[in-house]
């Protein structure tokens, strides 16, 4: 048997509104939490400046890489690459500028009507993330973010507008981006919109996660009722933590790391209830969740149709030793001596992708989408005016090879969308120079650049991969 990808495999790319769209104060849009985050770097954290942007600060997400004014051109480039699917998020504050209004902003919806119609024109399947790292700012300032149960109703109002408006046009939906980032402080800000540092503690984050899990389950039920063809997925930042040594304590620690960072949220989404180990973890960490009587029923009735993940790197974890530390997506942990890393220290581990896909499929037996994968790198324009990003091609080739292995292992993989298919602003550092794109955007960290687009070498390479359904790597 040769290692082939399924016939209808969905190849494509992924972005998020807050990092890509720009137009932060156009078309009636209200500010989101991403609009009060300054730029940063690998050594300097981004800073929040509530309640509003400051005059003398630079906010990279305000213009981002300007999909708001380049959507037609960018979608044409996606079509040229042969995309079958495009993952993007809908900016909540473009539709509900404050988040708690009853009626949506029609001008905001028109923008997404255009985007979706343009995708469908090229037979590109839209995959919509309902909430990707940008709660309307007002919901944080007025209600304290997702630790407040009221946000469930506001989210449902938003979701209903989307499911109704895009009925028959959008079939695939993700309820929350990387919900499991709520296990770390980063997620308290990005996922939950908890802006006060003193409030960004474990108890509030797990309470916020509970509210999002309830909202997700309600959204699944609603979407199925509005259109039985709708398919809803959860989205996990897959934390792949290997035991640093074969000491049994390290093996157990790695298992617990995975349970905590991946499976608490994943199990509730897929199985409709908290796993046994969650109870012990909450008890031992003095986390008391407020769970309404009806919540368990809601969770049971709103389980997802598929699982999606972001996968960039792996990390080592240990209960027994202190190794040299490095960062990975959303956390910092021990370096793996067998792996090389990106310029931002994220360790490149293609084999880990096969491992993770098998692990998820063994656990859930649901179709899987890889909705984020790629390498953040510094791209230089060469003397011939082009970008020769062979390091990106190498990264993607190795990961796609492992994806094929996983399919051969029996994993039901249905989609792959490479992250930041057009260059976007980095979520963790706020930089543009941490580029993931197959399409270069002439935009720089000091805000300069004419925003023109240019395919990189990886663009032409990926086009062939898609054309050959993964045969030509
Ligand atoms: C994921 C997020 O965590 O990783 C994206 O869903 C993010 O929003 C991506 O951009 C890469 O991370 P970063 O920090 O390099 O942008």
UniProtKB/TrEMBL annotation:
Keyword S-adenosyl-L-methionine: no
This protein's UniProt keywords: Glycosidase, Hydrolase
PROSITE patterns registered for this protein in UniProt: GLYCOSYL_HYDROL_F1_2
GO molecular function: hydrolase activity
Family membership: Belongs to the glycosyl hydrolase 1 family.
Name of the protein described by the UniProt record: Glycoside hydrolase family 1 protein
UniProt source species: Clostridium saudiense
Organismal lineage: Bacteria, Bacillati, Bacillota, Clostridia, Eubacteriales
